[in-house]
Design goal:
The protein is mostly helical and 129 residues long. It has a domain of 84 residues: Arc Repressor Mutant, subunit A. 40% of the residues lie in helices and 8% in strands. The protein contains five helices and three strands; from the N terminus they run αβαβααβα.
Length: 129
């Protein structure tokens, strides 16, 4: 018995193929970044913290970043929340750092945390009090 015309038996139960998402409006990305090629030395885990509220003259993207960064967020998280490429977010943050709207902080390095045995000793000492 032959399968019906136009339908291959191995493709009947396959999930639909996900299409690769292309930028819906590449001109928008250019407008956001401008011609500036200078970028701050930020990496994916650099923490960004807002200095306060957005001024009335702030661009919409800057206002969103300031609202999101009321608590520290990494550049990778910002990129995901804004649905923008890392390179575009880096250019936006460079402009915002220059305007002193945000502050960049180095991530907490695991080696700078206190030793677990020291923390346990302090905890046991406090429990004995």
């Amino acid at each position: 018995m032959n399968p019906p015309q136009g339908e291959h038996p191995s493709h009947r139960d396959d999930p639909p193929q996900r299409q690769r998402r292309s930028p819906e409006n590449p001109e928008r990305l250019y407008i956001l970044t401008g011609e500036d090629t200078e970028r701050a030395p930020l990496d994916l885990v650099t923490l960004i913290v807002a200095h306060g509220e957005a001024p009335p003259s702030a661009e919409p993207e800057h206002s969103v970043v300031l609202r999101l960064c009321s608590t520290p967020l990494s550049v990778a998280e910002l990129s995901a929340y804004l649905a923008l490429p890392f390179s575009v977010v880096t250019v936006l943050l460079t402009k915002m750092l220059g305007a002193d709207l945000v502050q960049a902080r180095a991530p907490i390095v695991r080696s700078t945390l206190p030793d677990r045995s020291l923390l346990e000793a302090v905890m046991h000492g406090l429990q004995k009090l």
